[in-house]
Amino acid sequence: MIPLDSSLLIVTDLDGSLLDHHDYNWDAASEWLARLNAHHIPLVICSSKTAAEIIPLQKRLGIAGAPFIAENGARVAFGGDEPLTEEPSASYRALCQTLQTLQADFRFDGFHQFSDAEVARFTGLTLTEASQSRLRDASEVVLWRDDEEKLDDFRHALAQHQLALTQGGRFWHVMPAGSGKGVALAQLQQHLAEQEGHQRTTIGLGDGPNDAPMLERVDYAVVIKGFSKTPVVLQRPDEENVYHTARPGPEGWREGLDYFLAQSV
Fold first, then answer.
1. What global pTM score does this model have?
2. Is 13 in the active site?
3. 179 FRET partner, CA 20 to 30 A, in 77, 87, 140, 160?
4. CATH fold group of domain 90-176
């Protein structure tokens, strides 16, 4: 079993993992959150959510100021007081302009084309949360309305603009080529190692295909039962360090930490 001490680092996806897929609660995980805090074990959010969504959530989770990875790795925050974004960034606006040119050949909609109320309606978020989800830095959420057979053509078209497509728990995401949760986690691990003088043992938890690069990067991986049609497939030889949960959402999150850590308590 993994020692439950401050040399550990927990890296977690949010929607469908720490947060319930339907109502975004984390009640089932709250006991473990308190236990991690008591043992001074950092909890790093690694999510498709924006920084504007993650920073208020960190406060509610009691981990304000912790490092986090936003927009599927398109933004990495190394910790401390991150400024709250009030407007979408210039790079995000440029990305949306590129996507608008591709709508001549493919049928899809981006979050920038919806109002806060519309995003709230199809995500289940509050109006405030929906507004925060639209304050983006470097990636766009896409609702694919075309044939699935055209996704490969869409990927090829995006690549011509140095962009890539990844599938989340419920939506597609367009982001800069070469970015992702695994690349972002590697950057964060390097930063922490230089700051602290040692490498931490990592446990990662996620439920979607976009979590695979992060789950391949960590020492121990928890694949939470998800709702995506596409299974999470990991390319790693150490199957003994990978656990697939029977339960979804925060119950699966708790189940995963119970599996790797419970006997250490």
1. 0.91
2. yes
3. 87
4. Threonyl-tRNA Synthetase; Chain A, domain 2 (3.30.980)
